[in-house]
Amino acid sequence: MAKKIKVLIVDDSPVIQLCLEHILQSDPSIEIIGKVDSGFKAIEFLEHSKPDVITMDLNMPGIDGLETTRRILEKHPIPIVIVSNLYSPEDAHLNFEAIQAGATSILPKPRYPFNNRNHKEWHEFIHTIKTLSKIKIIKTEFSNQDSKFKNWTTQTLSIHPLQSKIKYIAVGVSTGGPPVLKEFLSHLPADLPAPILIVQHITEGFLEGLVQWLSKSTKLNVKIAEEDEIPLPGHIYFAPIDYHLIVSTDGRLHLSTDDAIHGSRPSVSCLFRSLLQIGPQYTIAILLTGMGKDGAKELKELKNAGAITIIQDRKSSVVYGMPGEAKKLNAEHYEVSAENLAPLLLSLLKK
User: Fold this and answer.
1) Residue 256 appears among annotated catalytic residues
2) Tens-place pLDDT, residues 164-207
3) Are residues 123 and 167 both part of a single domain?
4) Same domain, 249 and 311
5) Are strands 244-247 and 253-256 parallel, antiparallel or unpaired?
6) Which one of 38, 133, 164, 174 is the catalytic residue?
7) Are 131 and 291 in contact (CB under 8 A)?
8) Of all residues in the chain, what percent carry a pLDDT higher than 90?
9) Catalytic residue among 187, 201, 235, 262
10) pLDDT confidence of residue 139
11) 201 catalytic, yes or no?
12) Which of 14, 48, 247, 342 keeps 20 to 30 A from 186, CA to CA?
């Protein structure tokens, strides 16, 4: 018999505890080994038992889920899934601060009723737990990089659009992506000569919060892409939830509801394919941390067609899935850490 996936549920609501237990144990490969209602009890639980995955509430008495996550990951490299109902602009940033603290993924708290076995949320919970139980956690911390980036940020970084042939910077990212994006985007100048198009795999309900969170740490304009708009230099466009992001032949953005690719919509592959059609020689394509292989094959095709291609290295990736698959194909010109991604991009744009 295959070994069961052991899960610890941390939530101060008995109702949510029971709900998560009911959902997860509907899959025979998952076993709930504990349910606790506070961060202190979660830390104490780990002194004598080791789950494969932890689900973590954020709003709890005593120490909240954010601080609990920090303390756990100081000693235990266990995947932590934030289970959150924080969607408001005032609170949404806490989700991504938890990710920056080392949590691996975010899922919404289950909605009533809890009795539909075929509900999409059930499948997402189960799939996430089973997938994360197989990965080795790498806790990536970005220290204060002010001195390291001083030369980049204090010198004149103006790169007039006519000085660079690059028209599109396309980024694909999944699990572990938000803190890497924050590190990358925070070191780019406002006068970046090309738009950045991003496909981030993220659960429905959390994209708006991610955009708001990133907006506070970058000089660039961050938004969710809209149908038929023209991507502008110095702007960042995220693919909307459940829509592929495509650059049309006329240079406008198109949102597509075509079938999911590699189980994802939006898909990195779809964005990269569109850039293959309209001008790979004007493209820098980047594949960052994430599970699966979305975008890997297309990154190789972009490289062969004249694009500049970059992948995140294994050491700084929470999950070396997508960049690792690209590496197998020799799809990259450059493999860099998250901290060196911005300096590399700026140097390429200046050439």
Assistant:
1) no
2) 689 999 999 999 899 999 999 999 999 999 999 999 999 888 99
3) no
4) yes
5) antiparallel
6) 174
7) yes
8) 74
9) 201
10) 57
11) yes
12) 247
